[in-house]
Amino acid sequence: YLSERKCANTNLNDRKAWVNAYWDKMDCQHRDADDAESFEDLYLRVQAFHHKLKAVAEHYAEKNLAVFSHGQFLQLLIMQIQQPSPLTKELMQQFRSDLVRQPIKNTEFFIF
Fold it and tell me: Which end of the chain, N or C, is less surrounded by CB atoms within 10 Å?
């Protein structure tokens, strides 16, 4: 959600103010820059992937699929699987809260 160009050669401390400013806006359509993704963009990617997963699952007898992705993408995917929600400011707020309180860790494995 932050610009890759702007974040190049920075560390977590350098980006902290930018991260806070992005989430303080709670604007689903806001883009940090032209090379960044809005929350709406992420939501639409997750929705498309979720639909594709459901379609592909129909072709597997065991229904076992492995998914490897970025933690934020998986966080929203899990939220949408558990409780499908339309794109709203409230969904964005809940997503941010879950990211902070219960982030998906690198290499985390879970069955869903």
Answer: C
Tokens coding 64: 């076992």
Q: Which two tokens stand for residue 2?
A: 């932050």
* Per-residue pLDDT reduced to its tens digit, 17-64: 999 999 999 999 999 999 999 999 999 999 999 999 888 877 877 767
Q: Write the DSSP assignment of 5-40 as a string of letters.
A: HHHTT--HHHHHHHHHHHHHH--TT--SSTTS--HH
> How do the domains of the chain map onto residue ranges?
4-101
Q: Which residue has the tokens 């409780």?
A: 83
Tell me the three state secondary structure of residue 56.
helix
